[in-house]
Amino acid sequence: METASAETNAKKATDKKSHPSGDKRFKQLDITMKRSQYRQDALIEVLHKAQEVFGYLEDDVLTYIARGLKLPLSRVYGVATFYHLFSLKPGGEHTCTICLGTACYVKGGGKIIEDLEQELGIKAGETTPDAKVSLVAARCIGACGIAPAVVFDGNVAGKQSSSMVLAKVKGWQE
Ligand code: FES
Fold first, then answer.
1. CB 99 less than 6 A from any atom of ligand 1
2. d(CA 28, CA 52)
3. Which of 39, 62, 132, 140 has a CA 20 to 30 Å removed from the CA of 47?
């Protein structure tokens, strides 16, 4: 009986792998890790997915991956810093991530990023000269129902327009 309940608990723990923040992007990492059966040699594939979904690899994401694949955090950092295609920090004090997945793109995500690039004078992946804002483009972040979605410092906001995003970003720069 005890064994059965231990198994149930283990299963529950596995099912509850999602990030406590409720940020749905972590769910996509769960799916990628699960698909590779949490194999440690899937690390690069998982990092790719993370970069695609988050735009860059923040500490929290690397820690989450290390736990998921049961790898030492140092190993995950080592791999993430070794390959130039992975970026660890957007560099700015604040990060504005625009989703360019299909649903968001067709609902105006493409226009939002264009307007932001023009207004801030930087391209996606760059940081404003005052180091206040990094602009990041990401693939579907799992919030298609509220497209176009934008992530302000880790907080997902839906049904955004260029003027709403610009107002927020300009507020950061004041
Ligand atoms: S396409 Fe943007 S959240 Fe899915």
1. yes
2. 10
3. 132
The single-letter DSSP state of residue 139 is: S
pTM of the model: 0.65
Does one domain contain both 101 and 163?
Answer: yes
- Residue at 3 is within a domain: no
Residue 45 lies in a domain: yes
| Tens of pLDDT, residues 132-142 | 999 988 888 88
Do 44 and 100 lie in one domain? The reply is: no
How many A from CA of 91 to the centre of ligand 1?
24
Among residues 16, 11, 110, the alpha carbon closest in space to that of 67 is found at 16
Instruction: Tell me which residue range forms the domain holding 37.
Output: 20-82
Count of the separate structural domains present in the chain:
2
CB crowding 156-171: b at 16 or more within 10 Å, else e: beeebebeebbebbee
pLDDT tens profile 113-166: 999 999 999 998 888 999 899 998 888 888 899 999 998 987 889 999 999 999
Q: Is 150 in the pocket of ligand 1 (CB under 6 A)?
A: no
